């Protein structure tokens, strides 16, 4: 009995990828330090964020114990349930602050768009695994359709920030599956032309009576505010201007722990969630920002290293997509706070306050650990026996 218990404990602990776990612990220490400073002490938000880290840790641990072949079996039902729940949000969802993102199941409220950040790349990786070695153009078109369905439903809520993250997660799987870069060149050129046109004709396009057919009014205002925050400094441009002041005022070494004036005089809106990077920049400066960026690069590098060594196509695609999801989260949040991207609801991984997002990130790390564990098991099985 003791021998069996010891075997179970060994199996549970060998689920960890120790470099990834070390990176997570560094983020936990950094994230809780920043949260403590942003709220000015150990109030309920600090306590709940500590609890969120613990829940995310166990979510990661459980996911790490699930072999990739089991994740493959879960991919299709997970995706289908997610799309059905998104349809439920469309017809029966609860509206809050002008957006319908929540679905009341009686016992609890859920935000189905969050689960699609994991479900979409799992589904696409499963699909390409089934067609390994014989991928054709029609397979990429089918994958694009699988991605477009949840993306469109999330845009309708409207929740452009989450929709972009889901799109990014799916796109990385499609690209790593062998999508030719040549096919992306026309899209990139069209994007550059569109951005250039928008910047050049900003004054005319941002007039109140001009309707942007493809975007809601609030999304139009966010883009116009990005181009010229001073056009409404006390209204729609307030978030961007105050966060840019905070980032710039930190200088090279920052104002010091719990000494940020923009933060503690409450000029920074949402300083514990989407704009926590502004609070961090003000107090820790460029040096702190470089350290934070180094941690994120370390996380992405480890994820891509796991992807390269994964024994199956499913594992390679999932690990590669997850690694790039972390990059996308960090890039979009930092760009938004720094005033180079429009304001969208994207948290800074492991730093912004939030329970659902933290658990999602924990599950993503667990997927990386599961793929790494499968690679170690295969290496042990193939090792010559003495």
Task: Name the features.
386 residues, mainly alpha, three-stranded antiparallel sheet, 15 helices
Describe this protein's structure:
With 386 residues, the protein is mainly α. Helices cover 71% and strands 3% of the residues. The protein contains 15 helices and three strands. The chain has helices at residues 2-13, 18-39, 44-65, 68-92, 112-130, 137-155, 160-176, 181-200, 202-205, 217-227, 238-249, 261-264, 276-309, 313-338, 355-382, and strands spanning 94-96, 99-104, 109-110. The protein has a three-stranded antiparallel beta sheet, covered by helices on one side. Strand 1 and strand 2 (99-104) form a beta hairpin. Helix 4 (68-92) crosses helix 6, helix 11 crosses helix 13 and helix 13 runs antiparallel to helix 14. The model has no long low-confidence stretch (mean pLDDT 83).
- Largest sheet, if any? 3 strands, antiparallel
Radius of gyration: 22 Å
Shape: globular
Low-confidence stretches: none
Percentage beta strand = under 5%
Helix content: over 70%
Tell me, rounded to a whole number, the average pLDDT.
83
Structural class: mainly alpha
Describe the strand arrangement of the main beta sheet, using strand numbers: 1-2-3
Straight-line distance between termini = 29 Å
* Elements, N to C (H/E): HHHHEEEHHHHHHHHHHH
Per DSSP, the total helix count is 15
Q: What is the subunit arrangement here?
A: single chain
| Topology, number of strands | 3
């Amino acid at each position: 009995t003791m021998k069996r218990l010891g075997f179970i404990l060994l199996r549970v602990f060998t689920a960890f990828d120790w470099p990834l776990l070390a990176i997570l612990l560094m983020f936990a220490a950094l994230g809780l330090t920043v949260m403590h400073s942003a709220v000015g002490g150990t109030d309920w938000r600090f306590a709940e964020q500590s609890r969120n880290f613990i829940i995310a840790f166990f979510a990661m641990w459980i996911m790490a114990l699930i072999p990739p072949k089991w994740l493959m079996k879960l991919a299709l039902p997970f995706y289908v349930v997610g799309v059905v729940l998104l349809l439920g949000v469309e017809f029966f969802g609860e509206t809050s602050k002008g957006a319908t993102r929540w679905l009341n199941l009686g016992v609890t409220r859920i935000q189905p768009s969050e689960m699609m950040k994991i479900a979409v790349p799992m589904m696409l990786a499963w699909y390409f695994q089934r067609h390994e070695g014989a991928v054709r153009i029609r397979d990429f078109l089918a994958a694009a359709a699988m991605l477009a369905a949840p993306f469109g439903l999330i845009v309708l809520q409207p929740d452009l920030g989450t929709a972009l993250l889901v799109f990014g997660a799916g796109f990385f799987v499609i690209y790593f599956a062998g999508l030719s870069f040549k096919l992306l060149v026309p899209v990139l050129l069209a994007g550059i032309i569109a951005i250039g046109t928008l910047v050049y004709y900003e004054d005319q396009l941002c007039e109140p009576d001009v309707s942007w057919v493809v975007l809601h009014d609030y999304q139009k205002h966010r883009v116009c505010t990005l181009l010229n925050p001073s056009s409404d400094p006390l209204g729609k441009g307030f978030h961007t201007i105050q966060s840019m002041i905070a980032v710039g005022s930190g200088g090279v070494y920052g104002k010091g722990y719990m000494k940020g004036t923009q933060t503690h005089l409450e000029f920074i809106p949402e300083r514990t969630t989407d704009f926590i990077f502004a609070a961090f920049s003000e107090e820790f400066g460029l040096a702190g920002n470089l350290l934070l960026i180094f941690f994120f690069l370390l996380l992405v590098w480890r994820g891509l290293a796991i992807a390269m060594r994964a024994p199956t196509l499913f594992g390679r695609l999932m690990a590669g997509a997850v690694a790039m999801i972390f990059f996308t989260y960090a890039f979009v949040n930092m760009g938004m706070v720094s005033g180079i991207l429009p304001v969208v609801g994207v948290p800074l991984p492991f730093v912004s306050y939030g329970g659902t997002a933290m658990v999602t990130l924990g599950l993503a790390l667990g997927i990386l650990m599961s793929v790494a564990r499968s690679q170690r098991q295969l290496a042990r099985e193939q090792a010559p026996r003495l």
